[in-house]
Amino acid sequence: MERLIKYFVPEKYILDLEVDKFKKTIGGVVKVSGEAVSDTIKFHAIDFEISKVLVNGIPCEFKNDKKILEISGLEPGAAEIEVSYNGTLNENMQGAYLSTYEYEGKTETIVATQFESHYAREAFPCIDEPEAKAEFDVKISLPEGSDDLVLVNTPSPRMSTYLLAWAIGHFHGKTIKNKHGVEITTYAALNQDIDSVDFANEIAAKSLEFYDDNFGVKYPLDKCIQVALPDFEAGAMENWGLVTYRESMLLVPKSATLGTKKSVALTVAHELSHQWFGDLVTMKWWDDLWLNESFASVMEYYAVDAIFPEYKIWEGFFTGDCLAALRRDSIDGVQSVHQDVNDPEEIATLFDGAIVYAKGARLMLMVIRAMGWDNFCKGIKEYFEEFKYKNTVGDDLWRALNKYADFDVKELMHTFIDKPGYPVISDGKQKRFLLDGEMPESSWPLPKIMEDMSGHYILNLSDKEFEDRLARFDDLSLEEKLRLLIDRDLVSKTELSSSASLLPLVFKFREEMSAAVWSIILTIVSGLKIFFEYDSVEEKKYKEFVKDLVASGISKVGLVAKKDDDENILRLRSILLALDFYAENETNLKKLADLYDSDYEKLNAETRSDILDAKIYVEPDILTEYLEAYKNIADPEIKYDLLLAMTLMKDKTGLLKVMKLLEQPEVVKPQDQFHLFIYLYRNPRVKTEVFEWLTTHWEYVKKMSGDKSLDNYPRYIAGTIKTKEDFDEYLKFFEPLSSEPALARAVEMGKNEINARLKLIESDKDAVTAILNKNGAR
Ligand SMILES: [Zn+2]
């Protein structure tokens, strides 16, 4: 991929734009001053009509192939380029795009932006590379008579093009000031409750204070604006001083659960840490994207833990992010955290959450723990001071940290960042842990081996060592408990241990009251489902087993959330009820269904999704009411609960109706279509029909989803397949598509993952069934 900064180094952009949401157009004059390095210069410019180019005020020759604007005949040296252009607004949630919502019987339209990673070039001609930092000044004119609010993050200090943003439309919001004098405003669409921005304001205010205090460099802007957008492809985007979010990732309505508050808190803290790491100091090129994301993905936990210690937020890191990283990183073909990128299409596939975010965060935590938080902050402060408004590579960070560490940060991190995978340690010897195939000898440098969650490795204990730790389980620290179970689950998926031992193991935990421990039990129980065919005698027995497993816990916590339930009990109950739902416990499903009230805001928020799931399970006709409500309700959390409940129902006729929503983006927004698809696919009652639908609607799916998420389809489908027949169908459809750079890795890894699973079923199925037939060792 050719870098355009080698021809022209921009210093300042002045954008004078006209944006018309009715005509769906964008255009105007872009003035860029900077330094021409050669007599021909190039700008990224996707699908624009370009009417005129001036260089230092003089008309100039240019070529426009709708991807690159090439201007020739320059004198090298300082130059001012003026480009007059016209383009259209996108509808696929990238570049400058249209987003809509319904309010008081009318459709409201917003113009928003998503420029990361390489979509600024779809909104205006520019050198669209992170290294090409410049100052920006944007003026936006609207059609005559428009009363839209225009939010834009300029004039800006020096920053990369991907951090520029605007949002134009009807919003309402609230402003507060934090203790350090930063003005924080959070906006939402008019159909959202104005008070639903309060929590986001609070967490933003406190996160910025936390980072000010710990990073030693103050938040460099005087304002921080956050906007919830009705259509948003990712979770959120850290545009400098104008952070954009999916509604469900920012708004906390009165009806919200503690789980929603936690995820909003983490998301806001993540984006705001990027204001330093990513925005103030930026990676030189996309191969170091992990520099941004690993850092932000660990910092969000430090910040939220400091602000709301009662959330016990680290538990979620260990049982969520760490587990996701370990599972993904055990599949052959996985990328390394640091990854070369050439093709622009490849930039999109770099965002493998389990690796770039979760594994990266785990590695960062390993370093922070090894050097200590205070020393880490000293290094970070120097790093920010040295490189502010500039670009860096990974080694710049390691150099800054090395000064305050008593070990070689650079050496430790290079091996983990540049290589895929991690070691499994047996008797002090290590091999690369792989779910399928030979595990080669390996030599990762490891700090002291700990039995807590530090360190990206797993321990393969002998049966005796394992039993010994189980016997004194109550004396272990929570992290030691989690590692013991997580590592055992992973090794049991290989020749190192048998899956059959997991059944009696989980049953030992039926009286356990820690939600964190239970979330690993949930993982193990879900993992064992692969051994039972849908609707078979064995599956029915397994469901009975699961029902028994959770019975004692449910009788202790009750079906419905109570006022004085703490964070642990709320989380525990939702895990137990999820398993009880899988077990199809008719008695409890009926009890929950009886609590249904069509005024969803009246339902106990923490039990709402369980009630909605149960109601439609026992009474499929309620689907009509759910569908109507889904169309009319704006609250993102209730909408999500309804959508999920509709995909979990038992009635096939109803499920096929729900499947029709896959072709109704006016009902289920494109941003939510993948969720709808994969939840339906995971319902064995319609799995075949849903896959068939995908194969016949692939072009439509491609058009609708942003290219960042297309690889979710081969990836998450692979996570569910457990029969040879389904694998054949998978190969038939996805193999021919694997020549596309955006899909290649996901398909390759999908194949490896399914292969490993089919082999595991073959080798362990008899033993697992035998134990289940002996009553599951209860
Ligand atoms: Zn991020």
Question: What does the model show?
Answer:
The chain is of the alpha+beta class. It contains 26 helices and 23 strands. Strand 6 (62-64) and strand 7 (68-71) form a beta hairpin. The radius of gyration is 27 Å and the shape is globular. The relative contact order is 0.07. The structure holds zinc ion. Residues 238, 270, 274, 293, 296 line the site of zinc ion (ZN).
How does the helix and strand content classify structurally? alpha+beta
Question: Ligands in the structure?
Answer: zinc ion
From the spread of the alpha carbons, the general shape counts as globular
CA radius of gyration: 27 Å
Mean of all residue-level pLDDT scores: 96
Overall number of strands: 23
- State the helix count: 26
Q: Name the assembly state.
A: single chain
Largest sheet: 6 strands, mixed
Order of strands across the main sheet: 5-4-8-2-1-11
| Residues in β-strands, percent | 15-25%
Low-confidence stretches: none
Instruction: Give the CA-CA distance, first to last residue.
Output: 60 Å
| Helicity level | 40-55%
Features:
single chain; 778 residues; alpha+beta; six-stranded mixed β-sheet; five-stranded mixed β-sheet; 26 helices; 23 strands; 44% helix; globular; binds zinc ion
Task: Describe what is shown at a glance.
This protein is α+β, with helices and mostly antiparallel strands and 778 residues long. It has 26 helices and 23 strands. The termini are far apart.
